[in-house]
Amino acid sequence: MVAPRNNSAHPSPVFDRAELKEALDRALAEAGPEAVARRAAVVAVLRTTLEAGRERARALLDAERNGRACARRLSDLMDGLVSALHDIAVRVLHPVQNPSTSERLAVVAVGGYGRGTLAPGSDVDLLFLLPYKTTPWSESVVESMLYALWDLKLKVGHSTRSMDECIREASGDYTIRTALLEARLIQGDAALFAEFEQRFDREVVQGTAPQFVTEKLAERERRVNRAGQSRYLVEPNVKDGKGGLRDLNTLFWIAKYVYRVKRTADLVEAGLFTQEEADLFRRCDEFLWRVRCQMHYVTGRAEERLTFDLQRQIAEKLGYSTHGGLSAVERFMKRYFLVAKDVGDLTAIVCAALEARHAKPRAMLDRLVGRFRRSGRAISESKDFVIDNDRLSVARPDVFERDPVNLVRLFWIADKLNRAIHPDAARLVTRSLKLIDTDLRKNPEANRLFLEVLTSTNAPEVVLRRMNEAGVLGRFVPEFGRVVAMMQFNMYHHYTVDEHLIRSIGILADIENGRLKDELPVSNEILPAIRNRTVLAVALFIHDIAKGRPEDHSVAGARIARKLCPRMGLTDAETDTVSWLIEFHLTMSTVAQSRDLSDPKTIESFAATVQTLERLRMLLVLTVCDIMAVGPGVWNGWKGQLLRTLYWETEIVLAGGHSQIERAQRVRHAQEELRRALPTWPDSEIDAYLARHYPAYWLKVDLERKVKHALFLRSADKELRSLATEVATDAFRGVTELTVTAQDHPRLLAIITGACAAAGANIVDAQIFTTTDGMALDTIFVSRAFDMDEDELRRGARVAQHIEKALKGEIKIAEAVAARPERAASKAFTVPPQVMIDNALSNRHTVIEVAGLDRPGLLYELTTALGKLNLNIASAHIATFGEKAVDVFYVTDLTGSKVVNPAKQGSIRRHLMEVLHGREKEREPRPAKAAVAAR
Question: Where are the residues of the annotated region Uridylyltransferase (predicted)?
């Protein structure tokens, strides 16, 4: 399927040097003596050679599927062009009959090009090495070569330095030193280059290994932080991301510097790698080069980020296909993340070897374990393990063979003692994975130890990640092994499935340790009341374990739990609860974000599903951990408030209380909370303001936003504005908030969403309310367009101005939306369109749920279509999950009744499906007679 078919260290060339020389000589002869004509003739021949060579390399890449061979061929191609230019410059354009000692020049490849590898869009890094200072001859040669390379549209990174300058600058600058470390002579004075190599080794490298290693590892840390700390980001940077090509480069730079090796094969002779590990290094290098070269060819530029749009194309190029519930792109990305993991393993091996040589200061590999204690005391928990170099390691090399339970016990002790695991021990673990068999999986002691790690409040996320990276987790829990490195091909999930599950366990520990009490007050309060935290931890660990299967992962996951939980020692009752939590782990989030929580039927239905207070508590905490582990910015205060409201409303029902009484008490509590937050407001003014909002508002909105709303509406009232807007940015969530107040009417929501669409603002969420005096108070959240707040606020102000003009009737929304430039939808994703119409979810309204591929203007088109169908929107619930939009509308017909007529429902479904397919035609809406109810 995807294995490279040519592993030759010296792949077949893509051009013939002798033929190139003949073509150049012929072109020069035909061009005559005029310099401009000669240069044009040379460039024309080289351009033809370059384009043909690149296409030949591309064809061989597709045929052989060997990325490193492609990179070597492209480097050889560039060597040929540079050599030919040098030959023409010194032989034809600037010949010297009797050159002096200063009229010498070596053309040297440095950096990545110096390694003999180039991607199609890579820079060509050249050093023009001189014995002394620049002479008129050397300046002329360099200029002639550079002008020709620039005429070829190549990105050339170049420097012209004397040998002394190279040594001096390399001594003071690690970037220059690293580039020169891989210097390779292309053409020119070989003796000059040999002298440089000797001086560089003697005057720069010798005796400076510890400093170089420290700087390179610190540089790697900075680079990884810029590209994204986790190697499991779903749009990874192939060159600079964690587990990418630059990590392999860094390993080789360090090995070359410390062990004085020249080739990967030398790493085995130096004792740094075993033969298997050296082979792994080469396989990782080849795969990453294969991906990178294809990315450059597909995009026509030096694209290093493997975006969603590219992933599908590269998966096809590399020969992946759909199989076993995973799409071709998901299988490709799983392979990518497994390679990134292997690169991480190789990094740990090198770091351990450097520590043993004292070439690297003692440091922890992961900053997350920075709180681990540093103590030299003996380990009382087991005689099979010791503290080595301040880390947990094995006492003897046979500890795992003698007792395979030690493969789990090692991580249990690491968590118990707050110790990092020594890389040598981790290396031995990966070599012992075959010992994890059926007997060990059934071993009660091994399962007890694993369960204690899973339920630890110390650092379970760190320890589980170490278990996963070592390969233990996937072998000990084979069902978990199926989701290791599995990406979810959507824009919602930021991490692979295994990373998501591990992060969710870490969030649970953070809640229990009180680190999130301000952000998650209810979860922090109720977690101690949960009687069986083990059940909650196990459910979190396996809630997505059935992802990637053809059937619903919640149902399949519940079935896996029934098999897995007894093995871990859980009782039948505990197993039932874990299974239930997994089957319904999406329910609370769905209800909170897409249902009207002020509708009693919503709470009654949810309470009937949950049934007990213990389940409700566990489901809330599980839901919160699940959402927070999806990725940065996914959790926000609005979702938190919705979940809290749903929890409180359901708690009352399950506890046998009277919902209306309790709701009234909580409304009063919320009002008093706002009163305390506005101490300068006169009592009469705040009393009047509190009376302006319906109970649903007080239950659904968090205090911070209530304060903003109060100040916003107060300002509008003082300025006698019946229409007002306000703009704020939220960099963390990556959204801009547009708050609008206006006289409410049935078409208001459609006009606001249409104005956003016409202004090019993509709506990702919305909060919609009506006050008791008939004013709408709507907050629309749109995607950011600029990184800087100043720029984004100016853009938000323009969108707000568009909304105000639309509401004043100064612009026609339908025309403005139709006139907006069409933006091509992403071809990376497909979301099957769905329209659900339900009369059982509410006592008063028909609930219409619409799901499909999100796009600018979708919400406007949906609300406009509902208006044309003479439906009144009582409330709308807008949610975006990456590329998927899920919009729910509570509607009635013009008489205020539910839509029960089958023909009418069919018409609604047909019109909304046309919108989702982009086929809805603009028609003038019929005027709706009834006003929007409390929204």
Answer: 1-378
